[in-house]
Every structure is written in C-alpha cells, then in structure tokens.
C-alpha cells in the first residue's frame, strides 16, 4: 500500500480488518446454510455466490457511482474542482483520482473505488454552488482520505452483502423449489427458513457497516483537517451542508438516502435510535473533534 501524507489511523485499520473478517465469515456461513437447506440446488448457489462476489469486487464501485449519478468531468469542464483536487493530491503525495460531478441540488460529495488507481471523487452541483473554495477543499480532502485509507473500498464491498444475500436467496430458493416440485412439507419449511436466514444476514451486515461507517467519518474529518491545516474550513462546510439539507425537497433527499454511507453528510439529518442505525456521527461530535484539532494546531 502506497503511503500518503494523510495521517494514518490504526484504529480505522483494525476496524476495517475486523469488519471484513466478520462480513466474510457471515457470507461463508450464509452460503453454507443455503447449500444445506437447498441440497438439490447447491450448484446454482455456488455458481451464483462466486459470480456475484467477483462482480461485486470488480464493479460495485461503478455501480455505486452510477447509482449516485456521477459523471466524469475534464479540467476544461470543471477547472476549479480539478484545481482543488490537484492541490490536495500534491499536498498528500497521492495519485489523482478521476473527478466527477453529480447533477443534484443536494449539497454533498463522495468517493468510491477499489484502490487509488481506479478511485473516483465526486461533488454534486449543489455543493459546488454553495461552498467557498477553502470549504470545498476541506470536503474534498475528507473524501480523498477515504481513498488513501482504503476504507471506501471496504465500505463499497461490505455494503453489498445484503444485496447479494437477497439475490442468492431468491435464485437459490427458486431453483430448490423447482427441484423439489413444490409439493412436500419441506418446501413450506424452506419458504419460512430461507427468508429468515437472509434477513438475519442483512441485519448483521447492516449493523457492522454502520459501526465502521461512523468511525471512518470521524477519521476522515481528522485526516482532512490535519492535512489542510484548516479544521475551521471543514467545520464551516459541515455546518453549511447540514443546514442546507433542511431546504432540500424531501423527494430529492429520499433519492440520495440509500447511499448515505458514502456521502460526506447524510441526506437525512434526523437522529435515529441512539445513533445505532446512523451512517454518520452527529454534527456535534464532528464539530467537537474539529474544534479540538483547531486548539492543538493553535498550540503547535
């Protein structure tokens, strides 16, 4: 892994390794359970599980970018955006990712990609209209730190487990029932057990990715503030983006909500139960951390 000037975070690395271990274990157990329950359809289950895993690893970042409406732009089309990314990449000593814009009034940004070679950083048109240059650089530094720390790749892969569980369950169940003929008592049991197993897998993977997501956002804020030396600019961007969310039509927010784990700020700012289901730490937590960094940099 190429080193950058972004501050390393051992806590984030530990959490990523732990999350991927349990996600991988969960996936293996899930596929094994389907093979046991659908003995007649095990070739279909294995083939589908392997195929979906490969497709997920190679194309999940593209699928996520497409789903969020990212359109790659040139330096001629968006000179200010490219200029900010160029400056930050030079400061961080990291390869420049592809740069994209999403045509959305929701003020936000995200990064995706398996590694730095095929990474993409995207800002929405709503964000570009609302932020000052220093604020925009703070947000972009936050997103570039996700690429440098590789947590964006972990989140992209891990977040698709629930989708895979649903696909494999439906296809495997369909194949198993066809082989069974749909007439014996075991068929009725399968109709109950398999969706239940799929639901359990989805809930566990959802909670694991949410725990990682909240920590990685704090880590990215910290790394961006230390790289740029302007935590106040990032704090201003956070405050402005969160405040502007209240003015965005609910329809637009709902379209962005499924990708909350990837956004710089969640599309809905309402608090969930004790933060357990939230993809991001609270605004207060993020601002408190940035205020502490400002104090330390001032003392330095």
TrEMBL record:
Main location per the UniProt record: membrane
Binding site for Zn(2+): 142, 146, 217
Record key words, sorted: Cell membrane, Hydrolase, Membrane, Metal-binding, Metalloprotease, Protease, Transmembrane, Transmembrane helix, Zinc
Cofactor: Zn(2+)
Keyword ATP-binding: no
EC category name: hydrolase
Cofactor note: Binds 1 zinc ion per subunit.
Membrane topology label: Multi-pass membrane protein
GO molecular function: metallopeptidase activity
Active site location: 143
Membrane spanning stretches: 12-35, 41-59, 152-176, 188-208
EC assignment: 3.4.24.-
Pfam families hit by this protein: Peptidase_M48
Subcellular location: Cell membrane
Span of domain Peptidase M48: 76-292
Family that this chain belongs to: Belongs to the peptidase M48B family.
Protein name: Protease HtpX homolog
Natural source organism: Streptomyces luteireticuli
Native organism taxonomy: Bacteria, Bacillati, Actinomycetota, Actinomycetes, Kitasatosporales
